[in-house]
Write a structure and sequence with these properties.
This protein is of the alpha/beta class. It folds into two domains: 172 residues, Rossmann fold; 197 residues, Dehydroquinate synthase-like, alpha domain, CATH 1.20.1090. Helices cover 48% and strands 11% of the residues. It has 16 helices and eight strands. Helix 7 packs antiparallel against helix 8 and helix 15 packs across helix 16. The N and C termini lie far apart (42 Å). The chain binds nicotinamide-adenine-dinucleotide (NAD). The site of nicotinamide-adenine-dinucleotide has 33 residues, from helix 2, helix 5, strand 6 and helix 6.
Length: 389
């Protein structure tokens, strides 16, 4: 077995109803917190938010609510949150929502305690220090794994650039994963966030830096996504499917924290950076068939193994034949969950590609892809992701 590192210090409270324990868990860390909450939840799940706030108050935790959160979080919103955190003298940040709210909370925890702005602490710039405020996550989507990852993704709108912080200080002190909080997620968001779980685990599994520890949890999570995502898309109230996805998502965050993503994230992230209406999951779904076609020959056994999880009838096929059918299997799965899409569907044209391609080539993720793309390869992957291709 090759040697590897594995680090996961987050205290996890997993299971239906665990949101009621928020106050007690937070009180062990701080008596005053910034409570960063997705504003949509204040409308569609107001009672759930109230339960969490009541739990904080009952435990003697004073909270300052900040709900200026946007999907694909922006630096501006993060800086406003950091200013409020400093003004109120909070000692921790609690984020409740999907990846957008929790990543906003994580970036605020850095920006409130460090000179400059959060943009100065991207993964290739300065490192956030242990001065970072403790972070508590209450996830309400199953997709980004941010509750167990060391990442915060956000966009600098002035530069049209979406990028990320990546540091151990961004690992949450506590993560509360309560599948009852996810039953209100609409079908399209369930599909796109759920597909994101698949991408985190699959890309960590095929990554040239993968390890035994991550391989086994990645495969476990992939099985859960394949069996439960179509169920949750069709019936959002199915709690067993929501639980399966919530656990797969939590495992996926550990894959991200210990290995990480490959080509599709390098290609997809700049799509949302330049076209913020394209959700993270959609930006990945649009790239996946062309990425798979480009990559499968570089990791035949692993592509074959996952192709067989999608389609057990491939058990009798050779590894080569099973791996070659992966692009078709992924296309069928995306159609099953209603997420199959092409760049044209978002109003993107080949003329828009130059800045997207430039940013894609700047991301390090592709270096762990089993076949490392040149700029021409990456351009072809985008071009093959249009309908006419
Ligand atoms: P999101 O947080 O943007 O939420 C998607 C939509 O669902 C929003 O409109 C939100 O208001 C709504 N929503 C959230 N919870 C809901 C609920 N319980 N009921 C009804 N509606 C609900 O989406 P996301 O996919 O969770 O996060 C996306 C962000 O996370 C992107 O910026 C992406 O790049 C980033 N990301 C972060 C990591 C990481 O490790 N930090 C990994 C991958 C992606």
């Amino acid at each position: 077995m090759k040697s590897f590192n594995y680090y996961q210090p987050t205290r996890l409270l997993f299971g239906a109803g665990r949101r009621a324990e928020t106050g007690a868990a937070v009180r062990e860390i701080a008596d005053i917190v910034l409570f960063v909450v997705d504003p949509t939840l204040l409308k569609v799940a107001a009672a759930r938010v109230a339960e969490v706030e009541e739990s904080l108050a009952a435990a003697g935790v004073r909270y300052v609510r900040f709900s200026d959160v946007v999907p694909n979080p922006t630096l501006d919103s993060i800086q406003r949150g950091a200013e409020l955190a400093r003004k109120e003298g909070v000692k921790a940040v609690v984020g409740m929502g999907g990846g957008s709210a929790i990543d906003t909370a994580k970036a605020i925890a850095v920006a409130a305690t460090h000179p400059g702005t959060a943009w100065d602490y991207l993964y290739f710039k300065k490192k956030p220090t242990s001065a970072t405020l403790p972070i508590v996550a209450i996830s309400t989507t199953s997709g980004t794994g941010t509750q167990t990852s060391k990442v915060s993704v956000f966009t600098n709108t002035a530069e049209n650039c979406k990028s990320a912080m990546w540091n151990d200080n961004l690992l949450c002190r506590v993560a509360i994963v309560d599948p009852e909080l996810m039953v209100s997620v609409p079908p399209r968001v369930t599909a796109s966030t759920g597909f994101d779980i698949f991408t985190h685990t699959f890309e960590s599994y095929i990554n040239t830096g993968a390890s035994e520890a991550v391989d086994s949890i990645a495969l476990d999570a992939i099985v859960r996504v394949i069996r439960s995502l179509p169920v949750a898309v069709a019936n959002g109230g199915n709690l067993a499917a929501r639980e399966d996805l919530a656990w797969a998502d939590t495992l996926a965050g550990q894959c991200l924290a210990n290995v990480g993503t490959t080509l599709p994230h390098a290609a997809g992230q700049p799509i949302s950076g330049h076209f913020p209406k394209v959700s993270h999951g959609e930006s990945l779904a649009v790239i996946y068939p062309a990425f798979a076609e480009f990559t499968w020959r570089g990791a035949v056994a692993k592509f074959a193994k996952v192709a067989r999880l999608f389609n057990p009838a491939l058990a009798a096929a050779s590894d080569e034949a099973a791996a070659a059918s992966f692009p078709l299997e992924i296309e069928k799965f995306l159609k099953l969950i209603g997420l199959y899409c092409r760049l044209d569907d978002f109003g993107i044209t080949p003329d828009d590609l130059a800045p997207i391609l430039k940013h894609a080539m700047e991301f390090p993720d592709s270096q762990g892809n089993p076949v490392v793309p040149s700029e021409d390869d990456m351009r072809n992957i985008y071009l093959r992701s249009f309908r006419a291709a």
